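sorry for the late reply, my laptop died twice this morning and i had to redo everyting from scratch. anyway the thing you sent over, i finally got around to it. pasting the sequence first so we're on the same page, its 201 residues, then the predicted structure underneath. double check i copied it right bc i was rushing
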Amino acid sequence: MKNFVSITVFMVLTQSLFAQKVFRIKSDNLETKVPILVQKPENYKSTKSYPLVFMLHGYSENYEQWNKTTDLKKLATDYQMILVCPEGFVNYYLNSPNLENFYYEDFFFQELIPKIEKKYSIEKKNIFITGLSMGGYGALSLFIKHSKFFNTAASTSGALEFDYENFKEISLKFFESERMTKDLEMTLGNPGLATKNWTNS
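ok and here's the structure:
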């Protein structure tokens, strides 16, 4: 009886452990290895197809943000869906018009999605995307540009407008530096010289 209980507990713990996984994609579009956190339902079966939800993190955070702020395992299991939290760096999930080696939108559709679709059983008609702050911008931006791919998008406190002076004020208040505007300049270029990059993104 003790052996049976021990085996049962081990199987439950093992199933729970392997329901969440972090792997890295060696990206040609970003020229770096990109960490991706994936949360499956505890009772995941490869013979069943699941809705897929991309969850994009906010500025100054990373791919672990959602895992720290909510119970991903419970969400995935209760709603029978696969959750994917990719690293987004500080570049608003854009193809940078200013950097030669940062094309996040291309990475997302050319490298990340094929990898997820190959590894997991996905309901192609039920692919969703959401994000927080910077990730909220990224979610809506990717959805608008590729609306036929996604079922629905959602944004939580999304940073939806690239207003240089507003970003500068926020950056000084929260970070006591101009890191937010410097990162945006790195991504989009100088706002005085690359106005179209700022208004068209």
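The helical segments are 2-19, 65-69, 72-79, 104-119, 134-145, 164-175, 179-188, 195-200.
thats about all i looked at so far, will dig more tmrw
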